[in-house]
Amino acid sequence: MKTPSPTAALLLLLAPSLTAAHYLFPHFIINDTVTKEFEHVREHDNGFQPSWDDGAILASPDLRCNKGAENHMGAPTPAQVVAGRDVVGFQTNLGTKIYHPGPVTASAPPPPRPVSSYADSEDPFPFPPPSGNVAEYDGSGDWFKVYQLGTKDPWDGTDQGWLTRDRSQFTFRLPAEIPKGQYLMRIEQMAVHPPYKAKQFFMQCAHVEVDSQYNGSPPGPTIKLPGGYSKNDPAIQLDSWAKPKYAPMPKPDKMWPNEDNFNKIL
Ligand SMILES: *[C@@H]1O[C@H](CO)[C@@H](O)[C@H](O)[C@H]1NC(C)=O
Ligand SMILES: [Cu+2]
To answer: Is there an atom of ligand 1 within 6 Å of 209 CB?
Structure first.
């Protein structure tokens, strides 16, 4: 029998403390396959830290894919998925269970524009990039929401009533109504447990290449990140200590193309 390498032994020692820490979403999921960490997910430099800073995160580009994500744009390969067919999603680091109450949402901006539609631009640093390449995309475009997980209905206002509670995988069937192209796909968990109306944001982005037959109207409604969230939003005003009976979801108010992926656990 092989003796475990020092690295493996160290990992075993570290595992319990990581489970008690906060979470990352380094694994992309396609159907039943959990891919290697950061194979398709863009790493960031924020470690396990939640983001809030008294709401400053809502006005920061770090709200998109987390602090320092731009330093890792070139690393992931895009996950190859088919709209209307594949189940996609994210798994936490080491299968850590989400123990903070609060919604999980997954959203995507429209694909980076292909060269052909960008021929006469004079902007030297165009975003979305002219290449259509997600590895050059900072997520400054318009984001639409494709998945969300909130509370049981009816909800008794408790932490246990969140459908996100104690889960480590968040998956949904990619809607058919998504145009072909490369995308960033963003997962966000907004922890609502801190006192009063403070929040903790955990977010991360995956690189995804969608194959699709869809050429209908573009996905929407959309928001910008930052810009689309405000401290006054009902979802962010939720006071989890006030025994709420209803949990408003983060913006945008509607999902694309319909609400079928709301609170749906596969
Ligand atoms: C995912 O599962 C569906 C059946 O539910 C299958 O048609 C498809 O080929 C699978 N995708 C991949 C990438 O294996
Ligand atoms: Cu916390």
So the answer is: no
In order of 10, 50, 118, the CA distances from 202 in angstroms are 26, 6, 34
Diameter of the chain by CA atoms? 64
Nearest listed ligand to the Cα of residue 30: 1
DSSP 8-state symbol, 143: B
For the stretch 186-238, pLDDT in tens is: 999 999 988 778 999 999 999 999 999 998 999 999 999 999 999 999 999 99
Average pLDDT of every residue of the chain: 87
- Between residues 137 and 115, the one the model is more confident about: 137
Please give the full DSSP string across 207-264, using - where no structure is assigned: EEEEE----SSPP-S-B-TTTS--TTSHHHH--GGG--S--PPPSSSS-SS-STTBT-
If you take atom 11 of ligand 1, which residue's CA is the nearest one?
Answer: 86
Is the Cβ atom of 31 under 6 angstroms away from ligand 1? Answer: yes
Kindly give the number of the ligand 1 atom that is closest to the alpha carbon of 31.
1
Q: Is the CB of 86 under 6 A from ligand 1?
A: yes
pLDDT in tens, 37-79: 999 999 999 999 999 999 999 999 999 999 999 999 999 999 9
Would you say the CB of residue 85 lies under 6 angstroms from ligand 1?
A: yes
Domains defined for the chain, CATH in brackets: 22-114+127-242 (2.70.50.70)
**Over the stretch 146-175, which tens digit does the pLDDT of each residue have?**
999 999 999 999 999 999 999 999 999 999
